[in-house]
Amino acid sequence: MRAQRSLVPQLLEEVLRYDSPVQVVFRRTTASVTLPGGTLPAEAPVFVLLGSANHDERKFDEPEQFNLDRDASEHLGFGFGGYFCLGAQLARLEARIGMEELLSGPRWMIEEGGV
Per DSSP, what are the bridge partners of residue 35? Predict the structure, then answer.
């Protein structure tokens, strides 16, 4: 990362995909929904496994591999649709600045675990 700072945004997106800050969200169906395993009635409680969705091989090739070359931009680390995190862009900015500052720090701080 020190040698290729331009990869920091990709690193952050892959971290969010690989190990999402939110793993599960709880919702209720607003109408009856038919899925391959059966039908959920309206007002049924549902929990969505975002962490699992970010490891879906239909969406991400070799999802269990941490890969900086992948396009992880469509991960669900900040939710989706009407439930997308309003602070996502601020969180990305804070993480990018923090990572860049960490990478700019004295080498001894990183090598000796000082940060």
Answer: 38
> Structure tokens of 84?
């997308």
Three-state SS at 114:
coil
Q: What is the 3-state secondary structure (H, E, C) of 54-101?
A: CCCCCCCCCCCCCCCCCCCCCCCCCCCHHHCCCCHHHHHHHHHHHHHH
* pLDDT 10s digits, 56-104: 999 999 999 999 999 998 999 998 888 889 999 999 999 999 999 998 8
Q: Mention every residue, 6+ apart, whose C-beta is less than 8 A from residue 23.
A: 49, 50, 51
Q: Are 22 and 48 in contact (CB under 8 A)?
A: no
Q: What are the residues facing 38 on neighbouring strands?
A: 35
Neighbouring residues of 92: CB distance < 8 A, sequence distance ≥ 6: 9, 12
List for the chain the helix, strand, coil content (%; round to 5).
35, 15, 50
Tell me the two tokens of residue 16.
């969010």
**Model-level pTM?**
0.79
